[in-house]
Amino acid sequence: MGEPVRVAVVGCGVGQEHLYALRRLPERYEVLAVCDADPDRARQAAGSWKAPRALTDFEEVLALDGLELVDVCTPPHLHAEQVTAALEAGLHVLCEKPLAGSLAEVDALAEAAAASGKLLVPVLQYRFGHGLQKLRRLVDAGVTGTAFTATVEVAWRRRAEYYASPWRGRWATELGGVLLSQGIHAIDMLLYVLGPAASVTARTATRVNDIEVDDCAAVVVELADGSLATVSATLGSAAEISRHRFCFANLTAESGTSPYRNSAEPWTITPDSPEAAARVEEVLAAYDDDRPQGYAGQLHRLYDAIRGGESSPVTVADARAGLELVAAVYASVRQGGVPVPLPLDPSDPAYRRFAPDTVEELRP
């Protein structure tokens, strides 16, 4: 193993979870600094996680001696600008979701990353749950057979105090609603298993909280392989769950319902025949991946990409697929719930923005 990657974490809200994961990988990462616009929060995070510097200015982060990786955990509307600046400074970038506020911005960031020669890695940590990884092994081995349908549920609870943070619940700063902010990982899990979407039909509503963005959504997705999926999301569920259920020709796979870790085990795999059961057992018996899950799992793999030349654990194209589905959701809603084919053309207004021209545009 090479030297630890020297990293700075920018944004000490969700950034605290990243710091926890980084502390679990001391041979792989050295935290040089934390940064937050709130100096008290920056100092608290630095003290809690033994970071030597607590900064409040993003430019100071970029000027740190020896820095290699910027971990962007700031509010969504800051992502595109900060990612671009870090890449231009010659630094690798790990960026929390959503990567940007439009497909046009995502594509511009991809071009900036290619020009810099550095890695731009979106955070999609749910991919690395062992339950989901085992299902992906079964898909890759051809054990599952043809995909028929999938159902995705994101039923969480967010109350008024959650939206007391001034950037939350606003199109200009949160960039989107329940599917973009809370459901994007569930969407990514769906596409990670079944591949790209071919069309999207959707309705959204704001029913739980007095906010600009939506907090309820119902979506029908036709995948490129011809399979169908439904995605239901709400921030008004007293019982919080996340659930994925996939029906294939040879088996059914269902996640657990833990709201924030349903990609982890246990998953229930139900083969359709003795022959399928034997193949499932054979493939899963060879599964020996003992790498961590979640944020630590992504960071573990990112180190190998930076130091060992392995492929990036998550690419801009991976994140783009989920964001394009969200863009299509909003396009469908604007048009009264009609199907929207994918991929979106750059001439389509949905390519250039998730947000509506007015709040009322996406309200029934």
Task: Report what the structure shows.
The N and C termini lie far apart (56 Å). The chain has 13 helices and 14 strands. The longest helix has 19 residues, at 316-334. It has 364 residues and is an alpha/beta fold. Helix 4 packs parallel to helix 5 (103-116), helix 5 packs antiparallel against helix 12 and helix 9 packs across helix 12. It has helices at 15-23, 39-49, 58-62, 79-88, 103-116, 130-140, 171-174, 178-181, 184-194, 274-285, 294-308, 316-334, 349-352, and strands at residues 5-10, 29-35, 54-55, 69-72, 92-95, 120-122, 147-157, 197-205, 216-223, 228-234, 236-248, 251-254, 268-271, 340-341. 35% of the residues lie in helices and 23% in strands. It has an 8-stranded mixed sheet with strand order 13-12-11-7-10-9-8-14. A 6-stranded parallel sheet has the order 3-2-1-4-5-6, with helices on both faces.
Descriptive terms for the model:
364 residues; eight-stranded mixed beta sheet; six-stranded parallel beta sheet; 13 helices; single chain; alpha/beta
Offer a quick outline of the entry.
With 364 residues, the protein is an alpha/beta fold.
Write the layout of secondary structure elements.
Elements: E1 5-10, H1 15-23, E2 29-35, H2 39-49, E3 54-55, H3 58-62, E4 69-72, H4 79-88, E5 92-95, H5 103-116, E6 120-122, H6 130-140, E7 147-157, H7 171-174, H8 178-181, H9 184-194, E8 197-205, E9 216-223, E10 228-234, E11 236-248, E12 251-254, E13 268-271, H10 274-285, H11 294-308, H12 316-334, E14 340-341, H13 349-352
**Secondary-structure element order, N to C:** EHEHEHEHEHEHEHHHEEEEEEHHHEH
Spans of 5+ residues with little confidence (pLDDT < 50)? none
Query: Average pLDDT, to the nearest integer?
Result: 96
Roughly how many Å is the radius of gyration? Answer: 20 Å
The global form is globular
Q: Helix fraction?
A: 25-40%
Largest sheet: 8 strands, mixed
Number of strands: 14
Spatial strand arrangement across the major sheet: 13-12-11-7-10-9-8-14
Distance between the termini: 56 Å
Count the DSSP helices.
13
The fraction of residues in strands falls at 15-25%
Would you tell me the structural class of the helices and strands? Answer: alpha/beta
